Amino acid sequence: MSHSIADSTLLQSIVDAHQPDFSLYTGFYRDVHQHPEISAMEEDTAKKVVAHLERLGYTVHTGIGGHGVVVVLQNGNGGKKILMRAELDALPIQEQTNLPYRSQRRMIDRYGNERPVMHACGHDMNMAALLAAADLLKSASAKWTGTILILFQPDEGETSGARDMVDDGLYDRVPVPDLMLGQHVVPARAGTVAIKPSGSVLVAADSMRVRVTGGPCENTVNPQICVDPIPLSMQIVSELQDAVTKEIGPDQDATLACWGFWAGEPGNDHVAYADMLLDIKTVKPEIRRRVIDLIKEKFQNDCRAAGMPRDPEFNITVRAPLTSNHDDVGGPIAHVFRAYFGEKMTEMAFTRACEDFSVLGEVHDDVAEPIPTNHSPFFAPEVDLTLKTGTMPWHLQL
Ligand SMILES: [Zn+2]
């Protein structure tokens, strides 16, 4: 922005003068919550978002990287270009709340499987807040200059929608932003906010598929004397975290988990191979590379030592890149949060999760019941206060 909103009184006066009609957005929230759409299938949700943006007078770009939506509000000359993002998709979870607007929907996902669907990560709230902010920003356009990009991303669930939008020519249609802001509803007390002014916020996550191949053994017709890939693979997996921690040190935030293990076929006494899906979470690029190399080495060395006829095979995909805040952006926002929210603002704790935001918001002592976390079938944010909090035009500080 060409000028910065230095004090919270001025910010409050702008918000008070340009408050959107929140009933429009609580209505949107409840509708989208009751009619969620699974990742990469967000057609109707995108249409609902577009309808609100068009009503506000925005020119809307649609169908980017699937059902992605973006608008640009260029307001005066100069100022920064700021992108704000929300997510369109819901999760394959069976809702178990008793809300009157609970989802009972089932959908066929992109893989052809019928799944229950629920906005258990709160993307419905993130969307409602961004739409309400789009309303407020338009209404208050005499109070700021700059360029705002308001973006609704598909398929965050499999962390590929952002890439799909960029690959589909997002920045041929809209300017490249100078900075980007994302906010996410988390299981903290409604009306509170948390931010980490600088540094890593969410871990990098990689998926590694490993195949350990057993026989055929050479010089024998008896498959039983071959090295069985199942116990060997189980042993390697059980030793993996310790082996990595020992090499890189316990202070270097690298966690490993085995998320899948498949081996053997019914009726076959010879196990050809064992397939594993490993989840790797790290916070530093150089540690990430070392951890991946260490895992490969351990599999290779142990397979060779056990006399496996083949080296293991690896297939690595980036599930989520590291998320970290730049202090030029996080610093001023933290400053205005503190001034505006006082006690209701906390510093966000670092989490090793890349999608599970459950520990990001500080839960206050006077909350009697534990708040169901994102991805819980009981996830149910308090709508009005959360939406109002999520609508605040924080970028005006930048
Ligand atoms: Zn989410």
UniProtKB/TrEMBL annotation:
Transmembrane segments: none annotated. The Mn(2+) ion enhances activity. InterPro entries: Amidohydrolase (IPR017439), Bact_exopeptidase_dim_dom (IPR036264), Peptidase_M20 (IPR002933). The keyword 4Fe-4S does not apply. The keyword Manganese applies. GO terms for molecular function: hydrolase activity; metal ion binding. It comes from the Eukaryota. Mn(2+) binds at C121, H123, H184. Keywords: Manganese, Metal-binding. Its cofactor is Mn(2+). Belongs to the peptidase M20A family. This is Peptidase M20 dimerisation domain-containing protein. It comes from Dichotomopilus funicola.
